[in-house]
Amino acid sequence: MSGLKKGAGAWRTRLLSTAATLLGLLVLTFFIGRVMPIDPVLAIVGPDADASTYKQVEAQLGLDRPMLVQFSHYLGELAQGNLGTSLLTGNAVSADIARVFPATVELATLAIIVGTLLGVPLGVYAASRRGRLGDHVVRVISLAGHSTPVFWFAMMGLLVFYAWLGWAGGSGRIALAFDGAIPRVTGLLLVDTLLSGNWEAFASSVKHIVLPACILGLHSMAYISRMTRSFMLAQLSQEYILAARVKGLSEAAVIWRHAFRNILVQLLTIVALAYGGLLEGAVLIETVFAWPGFGQYLTNSLLLGDMNSVMGCVLLVGVIFVTLNLVSDALYQVFDPRMH
C-alpha cells in the first residue's frame, strides 16, 4: 500500500514538474517573440500604410497592450483550447497544425524506423568488434552521418536519385496529378491512398517519401548507433558477461540474450528522444523537399512574426517531448525490475 502511495506521489510530482516546464516554455517563447526585430503589424499592413491604419491593426491584434496583459489574455484563451488565429493563413492555429502535422509525423515515423533498424545492429556490431576494422568503419559512418549537414545530404540525394537516376519523386508528398484527388481521412498520405484504393497514388506517395525519410533516418542512425555502441561497451565489460562466456555460451547468445537485453531500457529513451527531435527538427528536409509539414509551417511563421502560430508550435513541441519522457519513464517501470 505504501508503495502505491509512493508511486502515486512520484507521478503527481512529475506531472506538476511537467506543467511548470510547459508554462516556463510558454513564458520564454512569448516574451522573446515580443522583443524580436519582426513587426507582425507591418507584415500585415505593408510598409506604405499610414499611421492610423497601423494603430488600428495593432489594436485589433492586441499588441498595443502591456506584455503582461497580452500574456494573461493568451493564457486565458489557451485554457479554453484556443490557440489564436494565424497571421500567415488567416485560419485557426489549431486547424493549421492539425493540417500540417500529419505530414511531419509520417516522415518522422518512417525516418525513426530506418534509423533504429540500421543504428541498433550497427552499434551492437561495433561494440562486439571493439578496436577492430568493423568498429572503426561503423564509427566513421556514424561520425560522417552526425556531422554532415542534413541539407547537403538532401540536395545530393535529389541530384543523384531524382535528377540523374529518376528513382525518387521530386518535391512535395505526391505527384501533381494526384494532388487534391485523395480524400483526407488521417492526413497520413500513405494511409489515405491505401484507404482510397488508389494504387497509383500510393506508389507516387511512396516514391516521394522514401528519399527524405531515408536521409532523416541516416541522420538519426548516426546518433542511435553511437549510443548503442556506448551502452553495449559498458555491458560487455561487466562480470556477468565474463561468467556467461566461461559457461560456454555462444558469442551471439552473450551479446543478444544478455548484454543487449540489459540496454533495452536505455535504448527506448534514446529512440524516443530521437523521434521527438525528428518531429520538430525536420525543418531543413521539409524546406529542401518542399514538404508541407510542421517544420515548414513553423519557419514561415517565424519569418512573418506570426507569434500565435509560433506559440502553438512551441507548445506542441514541448508537449511532444514531455509526453515522450513520461512514456519512457513508464516503460522503465515496465521493463526494468530495479525500478519497482
From TrEMBL:
Gene3D superfamilies: MetI-like (1.10.3720.10). One of its GO terms (cellular component) is plasma membrane. InterPro entries: BPD_transp_1_N, MetI-like, MetI-like_sf. Residues 101-332 form the ABC transmembrane type-1 domain. The lineage of its organism: Bacteria, Pseudomonadati, Pseudomonadota, Betaproteobacteria, Burkholderiales. Keywords: Cell membrane, Membrane, Transmembrane, Transmembrane helix, Transport. It is a multi-pass membrane protein. This is ABC transporter permease subunit. It is found in: Cell membrane. The keyword NADP does not apply. Belongs to the binding-protein-dependent transport system permease family. The chain crosses the membrane at residues 107-128, 140-165, 205-224, 267-289, 309-332. GO terms for molecular function: dipeptide transmembrane transporter activity. It comes from Pseudoduganella rivuli.
